[in-house]
Structures
1.
Amino acid sequence: MITIDMLCYYSRLRYMNAMEKFTYAMLTLLFCVVSRSLAMAVLVLAVNGILTVKKGGIPFSRYWHYLMIPLAFLILSTLAVIVNISRTPFDAFAIPVGSYHLTASYASIYKGIQMILTALASVSCLYFLSFNTPMTDILSVLKKLRCPDLLVELMLLIYRYIFLLLGISFSISLSQDARLGNRDLKTSLRSFGAMASVLLIRAMTRSGALFDAMEARCYDGRLQVLEEQYPPKRKEILWILFFEIFLLILTIWSKIK
Amino acid sequence: MSKNQKKTVALCTILALSFGITPIANAMHIMEGYLPVGSCITWGALCIPFLAAGFFSIRNKLRENRRALTILAMSGAFIFVISSLKIPSVTGSCSHMTGTGLGAILFSPSAVSILGIIVLLFQAILLAHGGLTTLGANTFSMAIAGPFLSYAVYHLCLRLKVNRKVSIFLAAMLGDVFTYCVTSLQLAMAYPSESGGVAASAVKFLGVFAPTQLPLAVIEGLLTVIIIIGLETYAMPELRSIGFIKEKEVY
């Protein structure tokens, strides 16, 4: 149902220590956004692609498909950054519209390319984390980082409920389709509304039942779950350290330049 | 037409279609890595007071009634599912609701700010909408600005004795439009235009996203009304349990 969630359980990097993966993804993301250099973006994009596809065993076609998802946003907003409407034409190109020009400068086109590559590289960092780490592992990392217990618990419950509600909504919309419930805009609006309101009713009933079940098992305000332990490996830590130091040097160098 | 001309037409059609089919995956999430570090931190910091208020309000509610935990979690999951489902749209592109307007009307805006940041985090990790560095900016526009405006509009309309359905419609629609304005402003402040600064840049971003976002806002408004009608017909006890309808009110 949620493809990323399904894929990350198959990943070969799943049993790597979650804290290592989290630290690697966050630091790389940080350096990417801070430096905004082209070389760095290409390097990070390549390394994350190799890690996720080669090491993690995620099919390349899926990975590529997911990299292309944010493209619509990327193209639209980068166009808005590059193209200007002004009286004086800039150096790259200028299309006259009345007394104004639709125009862009070489500097802004360079900046646009830089933005697109940086964004794609950062997305690849996010994907490295989400394609290789199940949500429960990410939550245990958050717990170790002293995120308030209440929030982590709420996130755990929400994560569980998402699949429950998605299942219900899937079967409802399937039966609506079977009864021509999405024939035109009017019926499909009505069907969607009906589905959403039934969904909330079901959700409330389920939440009551769940609380009763928890109460019957001595729930005292804290959810206690056992975690699987995957100890960090020294070789992996050294590699991550080496790569991040390299990125740090690259960042400093790109800032000084 | 000659062979070459036919080929050109076919190519153009394929190109146009491929643009049409490209999923506009909830275009108002600012994607990962798109904002400079400065604005990521600024927007994140702006969220903190709202999130703290939301956190404490949830904790106090839980002290009173522990049962609220599962209800809150279900509400969070509900907002996530509603915003991840494809909704019927006019343009044929694939679009989603924000769901936070509905959340703000049903629950309270401060609770929605906490649920919203969790939902946005899940959307980033599970659905690749939005991102971790832009979480602060997205939270501010989608989980704080939109819901608070929706809530204010809804209660203002009720005070002014506007028809309930109209006020729900207005609240959800204006909340959506406001989210889209705030996002455009965030982008504009990060990338001011070469000619005309932040204001010109804001106008450009507003213009670029208007064709997808304005019809979406209207549809979101309509859907929210339909959902609430459905709930009022079938789910009075549930609406009471989340505090949307007070005991003595009778409709």
2.
Amino acid sequence: MLSKRIVICLDVRDGRTTKGIKFRNNVDVGDPVEMAKLYYEEGADEIVFYDITASSDRRDIMINVVNRVAQEIFIPFSVGGGIRTLDDMRQVLLAGAEKVSVNTAAVKNPKIIEEGARAFGSQCIVLGMDVKRVKKSQNIPSGYEIVVNGGRTYMGIDALWWAREAERLGAGEICLNSIDADGTRRGYEMTITPLISENVNIPVIASGGAGNIGHIYQVLTEGKADAALIASMVHYGTYTIKQIKEELYRKGVKVRLTW
Amino acid sequence: MLFLYSIMIAIIDYEAGNLASVERVVKKFGFDCKITQDSKEVLRADRVIFPGVGAAGKAMAELKRLGLDDALKEAFYIGKPILGICLGTQIILEESEEDNTKCLGLIKGVVKLFPSPLIAQDSQRLKVPHMGWNGVIFIKKHPIIEGVNPNSEFYFVHSYYPVPASEEYILGKTEYGIEFVSAIAYKNLVAFQFHLEKSGEPGLKIFRNFCQWSYRNAK
């Protein structure tokens, strides 16, 4: 039986790890290569690097980080943030990432999903989507809208529609991030997560809002997520990955316990 | 210590995915390896790694174009240790449902698409591709899995799975809605449906075992 995955997210700015609260006031918590290695050894199932520098002139710094990470960890890891072109994808994948995550670029130019999937395979292409709760309407029947710019710009696109469209275009996985829940540590978004997960045939990683093990349990069971993304829960040493996994296992969730 | 392991391992490059991660692992252990498209080089190597991601049809076409299909068959028949990974593990069989592809036929059997809908024992609908960490029940002893904790899990990404024609080929099985063969061992050939290079320490262990495996000594 397939295990539910615990995915650790490292926000990286100028080659250093940070964790933001609602994308603002980023606090430096360390070196991404060292942190990735630590989490690899502690039993992370996957690691996501989110490059919040996201400016092309700083791209080399991130590629260097990816290269160094690939020498140290032997589990899948993905890179997101500022991926705009096939060439951006190629650089990150050649540096050793298993997957790339596209978000804003895919909203503005959905073809990038199709082209990326064709060039590198669907399994490499993760659609990152930031969603915000809005009033249900004809245009936004799910009541969740796609936003960009850290939640400041509403795109007029329904979240469920976009998830299915991305799957049709060839995305291999969805990382669903709730801007409302992100950084609050009050639990994952429990309405849109199961709605999307049950309506696509690709894995969904739930992101935003994890504050305790109960939240993770909730999103992996009634939330129907295939994986849970966490950051501050482990970055500040409040929990270890082992502790999280053992507790989930006790509650009946299938997780990987041997590494 | 490098000189102790001067064994040349050919990593077959048929434009089916990123081979750098496989190369990194082999080099990490200090083994001499080379990513190659040259069939002569494959036949000169002491052992062969046959990785790959992507679709079977395109992969077979590319192998044929490069003459690597015959090189792989020959490497198998003359007894070079061969390690198949992911798509490589499917292409060693006779044919695949993916693009209705005729494959190498190193061992008898076919490659099938996971049934749809795929339903788990607890009646949950399962997604395809089968993506993530899953266990493997190894049904026999083999030097390639020596030292691997039986509770280990491995990283899978695939929609098709191998169906070898004979029990004698089967090394391990995995459950995902159905039970399928996830590890194959036959003579000088070992092959795994999961990504050894992405499966943490247990995957590395198998890699290392392969790099040191002498088929002649293996029973």
